[in-house]
Design a protein that fits this description.
Blueprint lengths: L2 H16 L1 H26 L3 H25 L3 E3 L6 H34 L6 H10 L13 H9 L5 H31 L2 H8 L5 E3 L3 H11 L8 H16 L2 H6 L5 H16 L1 H10 L8 H12 L4 H16 L4 H7 L1 H13 L9 H12 L7 H25 L2
Antiparallel strand pairs: 1-2
Helix pairs in contact: 1-2, 1-12, 2-12, 3-4, 3-9, 3-10, 3-12, 4-5, 4-7, 4-18, 5-7, 6-15, 7-17, 7-19, 9-10, 12-18, 13-15, 14-15, 14-17, 15-17, 16-17
């Protein structure tokens, strides 16, 4: 029953290349059909109604967070000043990485992707979108539970709020230095090819400008709601209310400046119905077999949680490997684990967050960033192109260096 999930991944990767027109019209049918097939197996074949309802609830929470942040950030217009030099771009990405720990990778991505595309508009290319996903949508948010969903789940399990920051700040710095250095050399070549006259014509008149800052209050409501667990669905109700309040109070001129429409979130919502629905068997197998994946070393947990987080939801993947780590260490709670087996817990935390950048579906914001870029007519790599052109030559070396320095022994 993992086959429908594999089929969906194959369709997402290959159909836009081989059958772009057909996929553009019929991808909702593919997603709904494959998800319905797995759901029918669970409901009728296994009688596992609670499992299906749990997945439906997780999807609802996911899309409420992603959707509300998308709407609220669409009401904030940030205009940048001057041409985006490679040095200015590096500073922007670093600020985005820090912001990801305060607003979450989703919040930072939705807030900053539009000004990022605007400041590079005269020479925007695929590497601008992909490195934004690498740094702002994933790697940058590894220091706090707000930063990425796996770390928030660890916080709920008893890991102290600043534990990952204290244990992993050197990993964060190392990863950012490597990725920003790579980006600089790629971006410098792109910058050198852009004629100076075009740069001056496109950017000479621009000034820093902020509009729609009242939406920061709605953004605060969403971030505060993340920490609400009871009663059921109050968290999601507050997020939806904040999104509606933002949508109807934001001046139309701000939405027009951001080229804001609901099409990107619609596309992501449909695709992730298929992903959430079909990945249930894979996640259930992982939960049952995570402890059997190899020798229980930090490298096992780093690469195990990381590789599966590249294609599965990294939050339940984190929980599965956390359970495996508790089982192999003989410890019964995450709070004790953080002091008795810190390297293993850090390996699961970093692996789940960092490897989420390896594919468009590795983390929720990834596909949102791509959808916004596509809507604004920015060239983005295909699913396979993303992996071949960027993940393998850029992310993989960084991940290996992190393993060699911090999790090898």
């Amino acid at each position: 029953m993992v086959a429908p999930f594999i089929a969906l991944l194959a369709a997402i990767a290959l159909a836009p290349l081989q059958f772009p027109d057909w996929w553009g019209k019929h991808y909702p049918k593919v997603c709904f059909a494959l998800a319905a097939l797995v759901a029918a197996y669970y409901l009728l074949g296994l009688g596992a109604t609670p499992r299906v309802l749990q997945t439906a609830g997780e999807y609802f929470s996911f899309i409420a967070l992603i959707g509300s942040l998308f709407v609220v950030s669409g009401g904030i217009h940030i205009n940048v000043k001057g041409e985006a030099t490679p040095a200015a771009n590096i500073l922007f990405l670093f600020i985005g990485a820090v912001t990801a720990n305060l607003l979450g990778t989703t919040g930072a991505s939705m807030l900053l992707i539009r000004p990022w595309l605007r400041m590079n508009k005269y020479r925007v290319a695929g590497h601008h979108v992909v490195f934004f996903i690498f740094i702002v949508s994933n790697v940058g948010g590894c220091l706090t539970p707000i930063g990425d969903p796996p770390l928030f789940l660890g916080y709920l399990q008893g890991v102290k709020f600043w534990w990952v920051a204290r244990q992993g700040w050197m990993i964060w710095v190392t990863a950012l230095v490597i990725l920003l250095t790579m980006f600089y050399f790629v971006d410098a070549r792109n910058y050198a090819r852009a004629p100076k006259r075009v740069r001056e014509d496109q950017t000479g008149h621009e000034q820093w400008q902020f509009q729609g800052l009242a939406n920061l209050a709605f953004l605060g409501v969403i971030l505060g709601a993340v920490f609400i667990n009871h009663p059921p669905f109050l968290r999601e109700a507050l997020m939806i209310a904040a999104a509606l309040g933002s949508y109807f109070t934001t001046p139309r001129s701000v939405h027009e400046s951001n080229q804001f429409t609901l099409q990107p979130i619609k596309e992501v919502a449909i695709l992730f119905i298929g992903i959430f629905g079909t990945m249930m068997p894979a996640l259930d197998w992982l939960a049952a077999n995570a402890g059997k994946l190899g020798t229980a070393t930090p490298a096992t947990f780093y690469f195990g949680s990381g590789i599966l987080s590249s294609v599965l939801d990294n939050a339940p993947t984190y929980l599965s490997f956390l359970s495996a780590l508790l089982g192999t260490s003989g410890i019964h709670d995450a709070a004790t684990l953080s002091t008795a087996c810190p390297t293993g817990l850090l390996a699961v935390s970093i692996g789940s967050v960092f490897f989420g950048a390896n594919t468009y579906i590795g983390n929720g914001p990834n596909f949102m960033v791509k959808a916004i870029a596509d809507h604004q007519k920015v060239h983005t790599p295909t699913f396979l192109g993303y992996i071949v052109k960027y993940t393998l030559p850029f992310m993989l070396p960084m991940l290996i260096v992190v393993w060699l320095l911090f999790f090898r022994h």
